[in-house]
Amino acid sequence: MKGSAVHDTLLLRARLYAAIRAFFAARGALEVETPILSAAASTEPNIESFATRFSGHVDAGACERWLRTSPEFPLKRLLAAGIGDCYELGRVFRDGEIGRCHNPEFTLLEWYRVGFDHRKLAAETVALVQGALALAGRRAAVIERSYATLFVESLGLDPHRADIADLRAPLADIAIDPAGLTRDDWLDLLLTHRIQPTFPADRITVVHDYPASQCALARIRAGDPPLAERFEVYLGTQELANGYHELNDAAEQRARFERDNARRRARGQRELPLDERLLAVLDALPDCAGVALGIERLLMAMHDTEAIADVLAFPFDQV
Protein backbone atom coordinates (compact mmCIF):
# COMPACT_ATOMS: atom_id res chain seq x y z
CA MET A 1 0.00 0.00 0.00
CA LYS A 2 1.36 3.42 -0.96
CA GLY A 3 1.99 6.07 1.66
CA SER A 4 -0.98 8.20 0.63
CA ALA A 5 -3.30 5.19 0.81
CA VAL A 6 -2.01 4.28 4.28
CA HIS A 7 -2.59 7.85 5.39
CA ASP A 8 -6.17 7.82 4.10
CA THR A 9 -6.83 4.45 5.75
CA LEU A 10 -5.50 5.57 9.12
CA LEU A 11 -7.33 8.88 8.90
CA LEU A 12 -10.68 7.21 8.27
CA ARG A 13 -10.05 4.75 11.12
CA ALA A 14 -9.27 7.66 13.47
CA ARG A 15 -12.45 9.46 12.38
CA LEU A 16 -14.45 6.27 12.97
CA TYR A 17 -13.00 5.82 16.47
CA ALA A 18 -13.87 9.45 17.32
CA ALA A 19 -17.42 8.92 16.05
CA ILE A 20 -17.80 5.70 18.07
CA ARG A 21 -16.66 7.43 21.25
CA ALA A 22 -19.04 10.32 20.63
CA PHE A 23 -21.88 7.85 19.97
CA PHE A 24 -21.42 6.18 23.35
CA ALA A 25 -20.70 9.39 25.24
CA ALA A 26 -24.09 10.67 24.10
CA ARG A 27 -25.66 7.50 25.54
CA GLY A 28 -23.78 7.54 28.83
CA ALA A 29 -21.84 4.32 28.18
CA LEU A 30 -18.40 4.11 29.79
CA GLU A 31 -15.32 3.19 27.78
CA VAL A 32 -13.28 0.55 29.61
CA GLU A 33 -10.13 -1.47 29.01
CA THR A 34 -9.78 -5.12 30.01
CA PRO A 35 -6.89 -7.61 29.83
CA ILE A 36 -5.75 -9.14 26.57
CA LEU A 37 -4.23 -12.19 28.30
CA SER A 38 -6.32 -14.64 30.34
CA ALA A 39 -5.92 -17.94 32.16
CA ALA A 40 -9.19 -19.02 30.44
CA ALA A 41 -9.99 -19.36 26.75
CA SER A 42 -12.99 -19.40 24.46
CA THR A 43 -14.35 -22.93 24.27
CA GLU A 44 -16.23 -22.23 20.99
CA PRO A 45 -15.17 -25.12 18.69
CA ASN A 46 -15.10 -22.92 15.57
CA ILE A 47 -12.71 -20.39 17.12
CA GLU A 48 -9.08 -21.10 17.98
CA SER A 49 -7.10 -19.06 20.51
CA PHE A 50 -3.42 -18.15 20.50
CA ALA A 51 -1.57 -19.37 23.59
CA THR A 52 1.57 -18.03 25.26
CA ARG A 53 3.46 -18.71 28.49
CA PHE A 54 4.36 -16.54 31.46
CA SER A 55 7.90 -17.18 32.75
CA GLY A 56 7.61 -15.30 36.06
CA HIS A 57 6.91 -16.47 39.59
CA VAL A 58 4.40 -19.30 39.91
CA ASP A 59 2.43 -17.35 42.55
CA ALA A 60 1.08 -15.27 39.65
CA GLY A 61 -1.18 -18.18 38.65
CA ALA A 62 -1.35 -20.33 35.56
CA CYS A 63 1.73 -20.05 33.35
CA GLU A 64 -0.22 -20.73 30.17
CA ARG A 65 -2.24 -17.73 29.06
CA TRP A 66 -4.56 -17.13 26.14
CA LEU A 67 -4.85 -14.09 23.92
CA ARG A 68 -8.47 -13.00 23.99
CA THR A 69 -10.76 -13.71 21.05
CA SER A 70 -13.11 -11.04 22.43
CA PRO A 71 -13.34 -8.96 25.63
CA GLU A 72 -16.72 -10.52 26.48
CA PHE A 73 -15.88 -12.37 29.69
CA PRO A 74 -14.10 -9.55 31.58
CA LEU A 75 -16.73 -7.05 30.42
CA LYS A 76 -19.43 -9.26 31.91
CA ARG A 77 -17.51 -9.42 35.16
CA LEU A 78 -17.55 -5.61 35.24
CA LEU A 79 -21.29 -5.61 34.54
CA ALA A 80 -21.87 -8.10 37.36
CA ALA A 81 -19.93 -5.72 39.65
CA GLY A 82 -22.40 -2.95 38.79
CA ILE A 83 -20.44 -0.81 36.32
CA GLY A 84 -23.48 -0.28 34.06
CA ASP A 85 -23.49 0.43 30.33
CA CYS A 86 -19.97 0.02 28.95
CA TYR A 87 -17.95 -0.65 25.83
CA GLU A 88 -14.45 -1.58 24.76
CA LEU A 89 -12.67 -0.86 21.49
CA GLY A 90 -9.58 -3.02 21.23
CA ARG A 91 -7.50 -5.69 19.55
CA VAL A 92 -8.45 -9.37 19.61
CA PHE A 93 -6.76 -12.45 18.19
CA ARG A 94 -7.95 -15.63 16.46
CA ASP A 95 -5.57 -18.33 15.37
CA GLY A 96 -5.84 -19.75 11.86
CA GLU A 97 -8.13 -17.02 10.51
CA ILE A 98 -6.38 -15.51 7.50
CA GLY A 99 -7.72 -14.60 4.08
CA ARG A 100 -9.26 -11.85 1.99
CA CYS A 101 -11.71 -10.93 4.77
CA HIS A 102 -9.80 -12.23 7.82
CA ASN A 103 -6.67 -11.22 9.72
CA PRO A 104 -5.48 -13.09 12.84
CA GLU A 105 -5.24 -9.76 14.72
CA PHE A 106 -8.13 -7.34 14.34
CA THR A 107 -10.19 -4.74 16.19
CA LEU A 108 -13.46 -5.49 17.90
CA LEU A 109 -15.99 -3.06 19.33
CA GLU A 110 -18.03 -4.73 22.05
CA TRP A 111 -20.69 -3.05 24.15
CA TYR A 112 -23.39 -3.87 26.71
CA ARG A 113 -26.62 -2.07 27.53
CA VAL A 114 -28.42 -2.77 30.80
CA GLY A 115 -32.17 -3.25 30.40
CA PHE A 116 -31.95 -3.87 26.64
CA ASP A 117 -33.02 -7.03 24.88
CA HIS A 118 -31.52 -8.27 21.61
CA ARG A 119 -34.05 -6.48 19.40
CA LYS A 120 -33.46 -3.10 21.02
CA LEU A 121 -29.69 -3.52 20.84
CA ALA A 122 -29.93 -4.54 17.17
CA ALA A 123 -31.63 -1.20 16.45
CA GLU A 124 -28.84 0.67 18.26
CA THR A 125 -26.24 -1.30 16.28
CA VAL A 126 -27.89 -0.22 13.03
CA ALA A 127 -27.81 3.42 14.21
CA LEU A 128 -24.07 3.17 14.89
CA VAL A 129 -23.39 1.55 11.51
CA GLN A 130 -25.41 4.20 9.67
CA GLY A 131 -23.44 6.91 11.46
CA ALA A 132 -20.19 5.27 10.41
CA LEU A 133 -21.29 4.96 6.79
CA ALA A 134 -22.22 8.66 6.79
CA LEU A 135 -18.55 9.48 7.46
CA ALA A 136 -17.82 7.99 4.03
CA GLY A 137 -20.81 9.62 2.36
CA ARG A 138 -22.79 6.39 2.28
CA ARG A 139 -26.12 5.18 3.55
CA ALA A 140 -27.71 1.73 3.47
CA ALA A 141 -31.28 0.50 3.42
CA VAL A 142 -32.27 -1.71 6.35
CA ILE A 143 -34.35 -4.86 6.51
CA GLU A 144 -35.03 -7.01 9.57
CA ARG A 145 -36.02 -10.67 9.44
CA SER A 146 -36.33 -13.51 11.88
CA TYR A 147 -33.99 -16.41 11.14
CA ALA A 148 -37.00 -18.54 10.15
CA THR A 149 -38.49 -15.90 7.85
CA LEU A 150 -35.12 -15.40 6.15
CA PHE A 151 -34.88 -19.11 5.30
CA VAL A 152 -38.49 -19.35 4.15
CA GLU A 153 -38.20 -16.29 1.91
CA SER A 154 -34.81 -17.27 0.48
CA LEU A 155 -35.07 -21.05 0.17
CA GLY A 156 -38.64 -22.07 0.98
CA LEU A 157 -37.35 -24.02 3.99
CA ASP A 158 -38.38 -23.91 7.64
CA PRO A 159 -34.99 -24.04 9.41
CA HIS A 160 -36.58 -25.26 12.64
CA ARG A 161 -38.49 -28.22 11.18
CA ALA A 162 -36.98 -29.23 7.81
CA ASP A 163 -35.13 -32.54 7.94
CA ILE A 164 -31.45 -32.78 7.08
CA ALA A 165 -32.16 -34.23 3.62
CA ASP A 166 -34.16 -31.09 2.78
CA LEU A 167 -31.40 -28.87 4.16
CA ARG A 168 -28.77 -30.65 2.06
CA ALA A 169 -30.71 -30.45 -1.21
CA PRO A 170 -29.91 -26.79 -2.09
CA LEU A 171 -26.21 -27.56 -1.59
CA ALA A 172 -26.12 -30.59 -3.90
CA ASP A 173 -23.91 -28.87 -6.46
CA ILE A 174 -21.17 -28.18 -3.88
CA ALA A 175 -18.63 -30.87 -2.94
CA ILE A 176 -19.23 -31.25 0.80
CA ASP A 177 -18.08 -34.16 2.94
CA PRO A 178 -21.14 -34.84 5.12
CA ALA A 179 -19.24 -36.90 7.71
CA GLY A 180 -19.75 -35.48 11.17
CA LEU A 181 -21.89 -32.54 10.02
CA THR A 182 -24.78 -31.65 12.32
CA ARG A 183 -28.09 -29.98 11.53
CA ASP A 184 -26.59 -26.64 12.60
CA ASP A 185 -23.63 -27.19 10.27
CA TRP A 186 -26.02 -27.61 7.32
CA LEU A 187 -27.94 -24.49 8.36
CA ASP A 188 -24.68 -22.55 8.54
CA LEU A 189 -23.69 -23.77 5.07
CA LEU A 190 -27.04 -22.69 3.66
CA LEU A 191 -26.66 -19.27 5.24
CA THR A 192 -23.08 -18.69 4.04
CA HIS A 193 -23.38 -20.31 0.59
CA ARG A 194 -26.95 -19.68 -0.49
CA ILE A 195 -28.48 -16.81 1.49
CA GLN A 196 -25.70 -14.43 2.50
CA PRO A 197 -24.26 -14.05 -1.03
CA THR A 198 -27.63 -12.67 -2.22
CA PHE A 199 -27.61 -9.70 0.19
CA PRO A 200 -27.31 -6.39 -1.73
CA ALA A 201 -24.14 -4.35 -1.16
CA ASP A 202 -26.08 -1.27 -0.10
CA ARG A 203 -28.25 -2.99 2.51
CA ILE A 204 -28.01 -3.68 6.24
CA THR A 205 -29.68 -7.00 7.04
CA VAL A 206 -30.64 -7.73 10.65
CA VAL A 207 -31.42 -11.36 11.48
CA HIS A 208 -32.85 -12.25 14.90
CA ASP A 209 -34.22 -15.18 16.92
CA TYR A 210 -31.94 -18.07 16.02
CA PRO A 211 -32.49 -21.80 16.64
CA ALA A 212 -32.05 -22.61 20.33
CA SER A 213 -29.18 -24.94 19.40
CA GLN A 214 -27.23 -21.85 18.22
CA CYS A 215 -27.62 -19.94 21.48
CA ALA A 216 -23.91 -19.57 22.41
CA LEU A 217 -24.18 -17.12 25.36
CA ALA A 218 -27.74 -15.96 24.64
CA ARG A 219 -30.95 -16.55 26.56
CA ILE A 220 -33.43 -19.06 25.16
CA ARG A 221 -37.05 -17.97 24.90
CA ALA A 222 -39.57 -20.74 25.52
CA GLY A 223 -42.01 -21.57 22.73
CA ASP A 224 -42.64 -23.92 19.83
CA PRO A 225 -39.91 -23.90 18.78
CA PRO A 226 -37.77 -22.36 21.54
CA LEU A 227 -35.56 -19.58 20.17
CA ALA A 228 -32.17 -18.11 21.04
CA GLU A 229 -32.49 -14.37 21.69
CA ARG A 230 -29.61 -13.58 19.39
CA PHE A 231 -29.11 -11.30 16.40
CA GLU A 232 -26.59 -10.78 13.63
CA VAL A 233 -26.08 -7.70 11.47
CA TYR A 234 -24.85 -7.96 7.89
CA LEU A 235 -23.61 -5.08 5.77
CA GLY A 236 -23.86 -6.25 2.20
CA THR A 237 -22.68 -9.85 2.16
CA GLN A 238 -20.35 -9.44 5.16
CA GLU A 239 -21.31 -10.45 8.69
CA LEU A 240 -20.60 -7.36 10.76
CA ALA A 241 -21.92 -7.92 14.29
CA ASN A 242 -23.24 -10.67 16.56
CA GLY A 243 -25.28 -9.92 19.67
CA TYR A 244 -27.26 -11.58 22.46
CA HIS A 245 -29.86 -10.96 25.10
CA GLU A 246 -27.32 -12.19 27.60
CA LEU A 247 -27.68 -15.37 29.62
CA ASN A 248 -27.17 -14.79 33.35
CA ASP A 249 -27.49 -18.37 34.57
CA ALA A 250 -24.09 -19.71 35.65
CA ALA A 251 -25.16 -23.37 35.80
CA GLU A 252 -26.58 -23.25 32.28
CA GLN A 253 -23.52 -21.41 30.96
CA ARG A 254 -21.19 -23.98 32.53
CA ALA A 255 -23.16 -26.75 30.83
CA ARG A 256 -22.80 -24.95 27.48
CA PHE A 257 -19.05 -24.54 27.96
CA GLU A 258 -18.77 -28.22 28.80
CA ARG A 259 -20.75 -29.15 25.69
CA ASP A 260 -18.35 -27.01 23.67
CA ASN A 261 -15.41 -28.93 25.11
CA ALA A 262 -17.13 -32.23 24.36
CA ARG A 263 -17.48 -31.13 20.72
CA ARG A 264 -13.84 -30.08 20.68
CA ARG A 265 -12.84 -33.48 22.05
CA ALA A 266 -14.95 -35.27 19.42
CA ARG A 267 -13.23 -33.24 16.69
CA GLY A 268 -9.77 -33.99 18.02
CA GLN A 269 -9.29 -30.43 19.25
CA ARG A 270 -7.81 -29.52 22.59
CA GLU A 271 -10.24 -28.95 25.46
CA LEU A 272 -9.81 -25.46 26.90
CA PRO A 273 -9.99 -24.09 30.45
CA LEU A 274 -13.31 -22.54 31.48
CA ASP A 275 -13.47 -18.99 32.78
CA GLU A 276 -14.26 -19.81 36.39
CA ARG A 277 -14.10 -16.16 37.42
CA LEU A 278 -16.89 -15.35 34.97
CA LEU A 279 -18.99 -18.32 36.09
CA ALA A 280 -18.56 -17.28 39.74
CA VAL A 281 -20.36 -13.98 39.13
CA LEU A 282 -22.61 -14.69 36.13
CA ASP A 283 -25.75 -15.07 38.25
CA ALA A 284 -25.25 -11.42 39.28
CA LEU A 285 -25.18 -10.20 35.67
CA PRO A 286 -27.99 -7.67 35.23
CA ASP A 287 -30.62 -8.05 32.53
CA CYS A 288 -28.70 -6.76 29.52
CA ALA A 289 -27.83 -7.25 25.87
CA GLY A 290 -24.37 -7.19 24.32
CA VAL A 291 -22.91 -7.12 20.83
CA ALA A 292 -19.49 -7.44 19.18
CA LEU A 293 -18.83 -5.59 15.92
CA GLY A 294 -15.82 -6.09 13.64
CA ILE A 295 -14.19 -2.72 12.98
CA GLU A 296 -12.24 -3.86 9.91
CA ARG A 297 -15.42 -5.21 8.32
CA LEU A 298 -17.06 -1.82 8.86
CA LEU A 299 -14.02 0.00 7.47
CA MET A 300 -14.06 -2.27 4.41
CA ALA A 301 -17.60 -1.06 3.65
CA MET A 302 -16.60 2.55 4.28
CA HIS A 303 -13.63 2.15 1.90
CA ASP A 304 -15.75 0.18 -0.60
CA THR A 305 -13.27 -2.71 -0.66
CA GLU A 306 -13.58 -6.48 -0.24
CA ALA A 307 -9.98 -6.90 0.99
CA ILE A 308 -9.20 -6.51 4.69
CA ALA A 309 -5.58 -5.68 3.79
CA ASP A 310 -6.84 -2.39 2.35
CA VAL A 311 -7.93 -1.16 5.79
CA LEU A 312 -4.86 -2.29 7.76
CA ALA A 313 -1.61 -0.37 8.11
CA PHE A 314 0.28 -3.69 8.11
CA PRO A 315 -1.51 -6.95 7.25
CA PHE A 316 -0.39 -10.21 8.89
CA ASP A 317 1.99 -11.13 6.07
CA GLN A 318 3.82 -7.78 6.46
CA VAL A 319 4.64 -7.94 10.18
Task: Please name the defining characteristics of this protein.
single chain; 319 residues; alpha+beta; BirA Bifunctional Protein, domain 2; nine-stranded mixed beta sheet; three-stranded antiparallel beta sheet; 34% helix; 22% strand
**Average pLDDT taken over every residue:** 95
Number of alpha- plus pi-helical segments? 9
Flag low-confidence runs: none
End-to-end gap? 14 Å
How is this structure best described in words?
- The chain has helices at about 5-25, 70-80, 120-135, 145-155, 165-170, 185-195, 250-265, 275-280, 295-305, and strands at about 30, 35-40, 50-55, 65, 85-95, 105-115, 140-145, 205-210, 220, 225-235, 240-245, 290-295.
- The protein has about 325 residues and is an alpha+beta fold.
- The protein has a domain at about 5-140 and about 250-319: BirA Bifunctional Protein, domain 2.
- The strands form two sheets. Strands 1, 5, 6, 7, 8, 9, 10, 11 and 12 form a nine-stranded mixed beta sheet that branches. Strands 2-4-3 form a three-stranded antiparallel beta sheet, with no helix packed on it.
- It is globular, with a radius of gyration of 20 Å.
